[in-house]
Amino acid sequence: MDPRVEKVLKMPLYQRVLLLLLILGVIAGGYAYFLYVPAQKELAKQQKNNKKVLVELQEKRRIANNLPRFKAEYEKMKKQLDLALNELPNESEIPNLLTSVAGLARDNGLEVVEFKPGKERTKGFYAEVPVSLKLKGNYHEMALFCEAVSNLARIVNVTNLDLGKPKMSDGVAQLSISNTVVTYRFVENPPAPKKKGRRK
């Protein structure tokens, strides 16, 4: 028999019990440190991931359940956008639109003295296209012209309206009228906003 085993067997009972408990403690400690604790950490991590996945799943189910409503809202917004874009002429339509505005002035009895297109001003997704108009006519003719402009399918505004002093002509008060007619154009690729540089 191995002398070390014999030595252990000759020990008093309480020392053998303590030695056995020590060996079992080392085995239990090794098991806990190398197997049990890492497994518990992995389990906690997987449970946390599981909760996150469940929340994502519930959110996706909610979206999927509301998909018909979202599609209906999308279609409604798309129609509203199309209607709004129809009111903004594209670049090729601008000359015809402005010519038709001058035609409306003549059709309502006004004399077009000056028709001067201004510089286009880009304002994000749209651009303002101004035209300076100088007209001659009476107040009633100007009111009819403004009404006709408001009935156009496209967005056109009459701004900066200045009615000069009336002069009598054939018993009718004639006005020298200056105003700016502004229409708007949709800008497909608006320029990026300029960044303000730091002063040194």
From TrEMBL:
<protein>
    <submittedName>
        <fullName>Pilus assembly protein, PilO</fullName>
    </submittedName>
</protein>
<dbReference type="InterPro" id="IPR014717">
    <property type="entry name" value="Transl_elong_EF1B/ribsomal_bS6"/>
</dbReference>
<feature type="coiled-coil region">
    <location>
        <begin position="60"/>
        <end position="87"/>
    </location>
</feature>
<dbReference type="Pfam" id="PF04350">
    <property type="entry name" value="PilO"/>
</dbReference>
<dbReference type="InterPro" id="IPR007445">
    <property type="entry name" value="PilO"/>
</dbReference>
<dbReference type="GO" id="GO:0043683">
    <property type="term" value="P:type IV pilus assembly"/>
</dbReference>
<dbReference type="GO" id="GO:0043107">
    <property type="term" value="P:type IV pilus-dependent motility"/>
</dbReference>
<keyword id="KW-0175">Coiled coil</keyword>
